[in-house]
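writing this on my phone so excuse typos. first protein, seq and then structure
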Amino acid sequence: MTSRLRKGLLALAWLTLSLAADPVAADRAGRFDFYVLSLSWSPSYCARAGRDADPTQCRGPKPFGFIVHGLWPQYERGYPDFCTIPRGSEPDRQVIAKMMDIMPSRSLIRHQWRKHGSCSGLDADEYFRLTREAYAKVRIPPAFRTLERSVSVEPDAVEKAFRLANPGLRDTAIAVDCQAGRLSEVRICFTRDLDFRSCPAIDRRGCRASRINLPAPH
């Protein structure tokens, strides 16, 4: 074995060990920097999903506006997902039932636990309790709670409405997401103690459209 080849193999072995020790590479439960609370504009999801939409969320007697999509552990760059958790740690029926008023889809609740909650370092009951606590810290602007007809707005207007309704929420701590010309989500960044915090990487991924449509709840 040549000296150059030996050095190359040693460098590769060192890199492999470094990645294995890196919490970002390993996606270890409880090892992350902050949270993103994602609030989904339910009418946009229902319009986009069509017949595949969750019936409880989209065809039930109660029309929904903003709902909780999820509470996502984040790294400063990227995020962990689908962390290893003990068998039998899925949220039980009681936990799911308690979340249906703000996450009106059983499949969404289960998926959010598997993909994101599993990386929180909390059990299912604690994770969803924290999700509700984060949601309770955000005041939905009145205009979105009383919307009776579809409107077209600038994404910045949506962000501004949230900042005005939530003192301390800076423009670098919130991002508006859009899909297919509609408002999709509002994402708000929190510390692990659930205080608003800046998150430049999330803010940079905000909607680039000049105007977006907000379908009315119905």
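second protein below, same order as before
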Amino acid sequence: MGLFEWLTGRAVRPQPDDADVETVRRIARELGELEPDHARYVACFAYILGRVAHADLDISEDETRAMETLISERGGLPADQAVLVASMAKQHNELFGGTENFLVTREFERLADRGQKLTLLDCLFAVSASDGSVSGDENAEVRKIASELKLDHRDFIAARSRYLEHLTVLKDEPKP
């Protein structure tokens, strides 16, 4: 079962395997105490953080820790639940990212207000910059997400401006 299917109850692909089902059940149990809309919000938030962390096809330990911290702080989860949610978000991005990225982001766009979308945008750059650099791929993915969230280009620029020192395109090229 994909994350989008879990969030919406709508099937988008064939029956999942047993390991995937168990992962979803485990996270559902962990988030079961949350109000359903808040659980969907947290799941989408985490998935999108994982989406940008995986943009360069490598989710570093620094990015993982940043995801866990932000999920705990912004999602109102205890640290152990945030670790589990981050782990699931990473797994789903690595396995199904290409097929679920837009669907999950569209669901977040529907659930979140403008302030929450702007907060997510800042968090996306925070995750990207957590390893010391925001790659061109990560920057492009954040831009795509901002567009899918129906945020203006100026919103994207404002969030990115807080992380300029980490943008690899602005760093000096190493001298030979």
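The helical segments are 3-8, 18-31, 36-53, 61-75, 79-111, 114-129, 136-148, 153-161. thats all i got for now
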